[in-house]
Write a structure and sequence with these properties.
The chain is mainly α. The protein has four helices and no strands.
Length: 85
C-alpha cells in the first residue's frame, strides 16, 4: 500500500468538516448522512463540471442557512428514519 501526500493535504480535513456540517452536528447518524451526501454530490458534480466545489459551496450554504441540524435534522422533520434526540 502507498500513502500519497495528497491524502495528508489540508483539504482532507475540510472535507471532514463539510461531511459533519452537511449531516448535522451532535449526532451519530448526521456525519454518516453527510459523508454519503458528499460522496454522491462529488460523483454527480464531477461528471457535470470540473469545478464541482463551486457548486458544492452554495449547496452547503443552503443547508447551513435553512436546515437546522443538517440533513439528519431535515430527515427527522420529514419523518425519514429516526432522530437520536
Amino acid at each position: 500500500r502507498f500513502v500519497s501526500p495528497d491524502m495528508l493535504h489540508w483539504t482532507k480535513s475540510g472535507e471532514l468538516m463539510i461531511m459533519v456540517i452537511l449531516g448535522g452536528v451532535g449526532t451519530l447518524l448526521g456525519p454518516l448522512f453527510g459523508a454519503a451526501a458528499l460522496v454522491i454530490l462529488e460523483t454527480v458534480l464531477t461528471s457535470w463540471t470540473e469545478h464541482w466545489q463551486l457548486v458544492l459551496g452554495p449547496i452547503l450554504l443552503l443547508v447551513v442557512l435553512f436546515t437546522q441540524g443538517g440533513l439528519n435534522g431535515l430527515f427527522s422533520r420529514l419523518g425519514i428514519g429516526r432522530s437520536e434526540r
